[in-house]
Amino acid sequence: MQAETIDAFHRGRFFLLQPKGRGHRSGMDAMLLASLVAAEHPVRVADLGAGAGAAGLAVAARLEAAEVTLVERSPDMLDYARRTLALPENAALAPRLHLIAADVTLTGQARRAAGLMEDVFDHVIMNPPFNDGRDRLTPDALKAEAHALQKGLFEAWIRTAGAIMKPGGQLSLIARPESLMEIMAACGQRFGGVEITLIHPREGESAIRLLLTAIKGSRARPQFRSPLFMHGAEGHAFLPLVDDLNNGRQAYYRLASRRSR
């Protein structure tokens, strides 16, 4: 039998069944991605490339009126997602989560046949594979599939996000900073009002991730937000804002939303 673990997130508000020693194991990236979904009313959210469902579950745990669809193509990870939703600890959340077995890169009729229809979701979130395809790949095939960035991936994933999202809906993603130009090109005429936040381990250290949100059909100009620093000058404890985002105590609101609050 394959080794696996049951891991608590958001201080025990939900749990995730994950492979141990192979495949992708979710952590802080998924929690920060989930924090980008902010809503005061019922919303439908799609988590593309959801894996075992960490980001989607984090959204559902924080937003009681959110309906979340987990989209994943890997049979292995779909099985983990199914068994995650079946955990007794997740019983309160499971009715608001749904699974779709589909390749995010599908288009047109093939995408619709897989269950991804046009103009359905208020939010689409994604944590695409982030390792450059030229990098040395892990011998773990399941992990390589989750981590290896292939040419044209952002174009394909963001195209699908634009198709399945309602006009005015929000795209949210987390990626490596070096992917920014590809992401912006993929947003193209589909999304505007792009807001970018660079995440740094500490002041004076280079960014290791970026958070990006954008609005379908918006023509607003892009904005770089204040950077997020994970740690103070000493120690490895998260700074208060990052800790709140990581544990589902706070959403990371878009600038326009913060001004209107």
TrEMBL record:
Q: What is this protein called?
A: tRNA1(Val) A37 N6-methylase TrmN6
Which SUPFAM superfamilies does this entry report, sorted A to Z?
S-adenosyl-L-methionine-dependent methyltransferases (SSF53335)
Which Gene3D superfamilies does the protein's record reference? Vaccinia Virus protein VP39 (3.40.50.150)
Q: What superkingdom heads the lineage?
A: Bacteria
**Alphabetized UniProt keyword annotations:** Methyltransferase, S-adenosyl-L-methionine, Transferase
According to its UniProt entry, this protein's organism is: Rhizobium paknamense
Record-linked PANTHER family = TRNA1(VAL) (ADENINE(37)-N6)-METHYLTRANSFERASE
Provide the organism lineage as a comma list: Bacteria, Pseudomonadati, Pseudomonadota, Alphaproteobacteria, Hyphomicrobiales
Q: Outline the extent of the Methyltransferase small domain.
A: 32-179
What PROSITE patterns does the annotation carry? N6_MTASE
